[in-house]
Backbone:
């Protein structure tokens, strides 16, 4: 079946440093979504990318969808302690397959 | 809107007991999803419904798991009999929209199930 892989599994940064998580699919995706889950919380939708090569920004967050629609990335510029959590990508056709997520820790 | 509502928030039960998890989706959403989250396996889709009809239950682990959606505002996930390996956080999510280009899913707060 379809697999969505995320790297790294875990990253610990100092506040102010940048952070990037990568998402790779074994098959072409119709779209990709990103979610954030705070510790003890539930996944919350961040954004959806649909077009090949698409780039979207939300304040300090930049999302990219690869040209082949098989990979995506999320980049956070100048992390803050409020960015702590696990970031998931999810993609597919009839259903969404979630990656295992990248856990981000930010030290003040 | 209150968002997706799940109950109970925490459940501790003994092996062999029946467990029923409940979910109320966001009003107007026509898709409902049940997920299970564990450290080892991440977030797994168990089953999803469209307009109260189960569409894909290929993620349901085994016959001990069953899910129903008797109407547009209520769904249950039942485990009978429960086993320690069923311990996980179970999320219900709902969305408005069809397949192809997915619509964002709204997750409930989850039910943390512990089977001893």
Residues:
């Amino acid at each position: 079946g379809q697999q969505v892989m995320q790297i790294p599994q875990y990253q610990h940064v100092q506040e102010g440093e940048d952070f990037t998580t990568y998402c790779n699919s074994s098959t072409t995706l119709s779209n990709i979504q990103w979610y954030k889950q705070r510790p003890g919380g539930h996944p919350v939708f961040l954004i959806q990318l649909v077009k090949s090569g698409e780039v979207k920004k939300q304040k300090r967050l930049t999302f990219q969808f690869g040209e082949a629609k098989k990979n995506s990335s999320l980049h956070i510029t100048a992390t803050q302690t409020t960015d702590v959590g696990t970031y998931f990508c999810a993609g597919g056709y009839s259903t969404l397959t979630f990656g295992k997520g990248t856990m981000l820790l930010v030290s003040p | 809107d209150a968002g997706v509502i799940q109950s109970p928030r925490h459940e501790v039960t003994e092996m062999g007991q029946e467990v029923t998890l409940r979910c109320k989706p966001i009003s107007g959403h026509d898709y409902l999803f049940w997920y299970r989250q564990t450290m080892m396996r991440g977030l797994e889709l168990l089953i999803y419904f469209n307009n109260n009809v189960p569409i894909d239950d290929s993620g349901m682990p085994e016959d001990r798991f069953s899910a129903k959606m008797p109407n547009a505002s209520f769904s249950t996930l039942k485990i009978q009999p429960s086993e320690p390996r069923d311990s996980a956080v179970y999320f219900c999510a709902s969305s408005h929209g069809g397949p192809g280009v997915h619509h964002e899913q709204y997750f409930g707060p989850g039910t943390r199930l512990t089977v001893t």
